[in-house]
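Q: I have 396 residues here and want to know how they pack in 3D. Can you give me a structure?
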Amino acid sequence: MSTIRVSALKGAIHGVERNGSFVHGPYDKRSRLGRTEELIEPSDPITGFDPQNPHRFFGLIPDNLRHLMTRMTEPAIADLGDQPVVLCVHGFLFDPRDAVSSTPADSDNPHARIFHYQPNVPKEVRDHTTGLLHHLGFDAEDETGTSGLAFAYGWHSRPGFAGSLIGHFQNFYARAYDNAEQAAWNLLTCVHMLNEVLPAGKRIDLFCHSLGSRVVIRMIAQMCKHGRVDLVDRLDRVVILGGAEYVVEARLMLQRLHHAARPDHVQFYNIVSRENDVLDKLGENFGPRTFGNSNVIGHNGLDVENPESLGPSWIDIQIDGREVAAWMRDRHGFDVTGDNPESVWDHWYYYTDHGNMALYRAILRDRGNWNIPDLRRDPPSSRGWRVSRRRSVFGD
C-alpha cells in the first residue's frame, strides 16, 4: 500500500507490521521488520558534506534502513504523479510499542489510534481517534500512490512518570520533549532516504500536531545545522496543528533557513486557537525551561507584531477567530472551528473536527488556492489571519 509506516525508538527506526504493530529484535530483510541501525546526531556540525556520497553524512552506510526505505517506497510511488508526499508526525502521549487494536481508542500506538483509515469512529472527539490519513485524502486500498504517499511516523512520546523523574530528574512532559530531539534526527534519516528514492523535483510535505511540532521544527534546524540544503530543497509545506514547540525555537529554525539561503523555500501553515489555553499552559510551564520567549507556537503563533514581516515562509491561522471562520465558510465552504463547546480540552479538536481536516486537506491538495502570498493579500479582516492576541482562559 502507498502508506509507509515506521516507528522510532531509542535512536533507531523500526520496520513495523502493515497495521503498525511494533516488532522487537534486529531488522530482517526478508520481512522488512525490526530494528535498523542506531543513528545519533553528532554534537558538532558536520563539515565537508559530499553530495556525491551523502551516506557519509551519518558516519556510516545505514544498510538496513536503506533496504527498508527502498523496498517500501519504490512500489508505493509507481503511480505517484503530482500527488502529494506527506510525512505525518503525532504529538504527546503515544507509545509505538503499544498493542494495535481494531478499536482505535483501545490503543496508544499512533498507527492504530490516529494513523488509520476508518472514516468515522465512535466517540472520536472524546477519545481523539480521528483517522488522519483518511481525512487528508489518502486511500487505504491504494498500492501505487495514485492518491499520494502517506508516511506515518511513530515515536515514543509517552515516557513513564516515575522513570522520567527517577532516571532523568524530569517530569514526563519534559522527558517527552527531550525525546523529540532524537525523534527529529531519526525523521531526518527517513527524509534522507526518501531523497534518494523519490523522483527528482518531487517535494515532501509535513503534517504534525502538538509535540510533533518539536520533532518537525528540530529536524529542519538539524538539516540547516549540518549543511543539508539538498534535504531542505525537498521540503514544501509544513502544516502545524496546536504546536507545542517554543516560539524561540521556531524563530531560530527560521533564522537557520535564512542563513542556508532558503528563506522562503518551505512554507509553514501554523494553525492556532485561543481555546487551546489549558494544554498550552501545560507546555509552557512543564516543558524544559528555555531562554527567550517561552510561549508555544500553538498559543501565540510566532508572536510577532507585524505578521507580514514573515513574508511567504510562515503564516499563523487562528481557526477559532470569527472572521477566519466566516472567510473560510463564505469563500470555500469550510466549517472550521477551534472550539469544542462541550469541553475545555480542545487540544485535539484541531483534527477531531472534520471541517478543520477539510481545510488541511485543501492546503496539501488544492495548492494553487492555498499559498501564503495569496492568503496574505486576501486576509479575513484588517487584523489579518492572527485576529486576536487575547488569552481566553487565563488572561495576559
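Q: Anything worth noting?
A: The mean pLDDT is 87. The CA atoms of residues 39 and 59 lie 9 Å apart.
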